[in-house]
Amino acid sequence: MKRHLAAILVADVVGYTRHMEADEVGTLDRLGRLLDQELVPRIEEHGGRVFKFVGNGLLAEFPSVVEAVKCAVTIQRENLERNVSQPEERQLRLRIGVNLGDIIVEGYDVFGEGVNLASRLEQKAETNGVCITAHVYEQVARKIDVDFVDIGEHLLKNISKPVRVYSYRPDQAIKPNPSRKTRGRRLGLLAICVVIGIIASLAVWKDGLVPPQGIAVDMEEPAEQTNIQRKPTIAVLPLSNIS
Fold first, then answer.
1. What is the C-alpha separation between 59 and 99, in angstroms, rounded?
2. DSSP 3-state assignment of 210?
3. Are residues 76 and 189 in the same domain?
């Protein structure tokens, strides 16, 4: 018996029983190709090894938690792309959980709380999604370009304490950068103000209320000298951004 720290990835096919009921032979064939030709090679590319197949899924360990999360995200993205060309009833969708913890190795198999928690995270994940713990998120947040969402603390089956969980789904819309959004709004408001100012200036100029220079000058001449009934005037000044 040996112990060491490792990242555990658990992947599972969603709605496997329903697929088997509808097409037993076809489902087994598609599942076998998905595991053998897609998931296992991708796991090995990221330095992991599969230590157990469990009916409609698998468990793998990685020496690097960053590579484990990268692998999980890549698997979901690629599987989503493959399913686009498949009829709805033939699409095999996945849930994946990734945990970092101390594990027990006996021969080729792996046991321990780290494995159990990864399995519970997989069950918490949405279809096409990946769930990781807060500890995993702290290790990978600045190392991979993936936006995980904090979905709060959850009580997981057979886990005594609440676990903070982060979630990712490749088919969800990417949220815009707040700083870019703010700058875009400011520029948009500035452009609108400039356009309104130009339109107002042209309209007033056309009506003859101000000189062509765009600035009205009140000469304060007595009405009896000009014999012209004075009209109200509008002064159009240079636009200033005072926000």
1. 11
2. coil
3. no
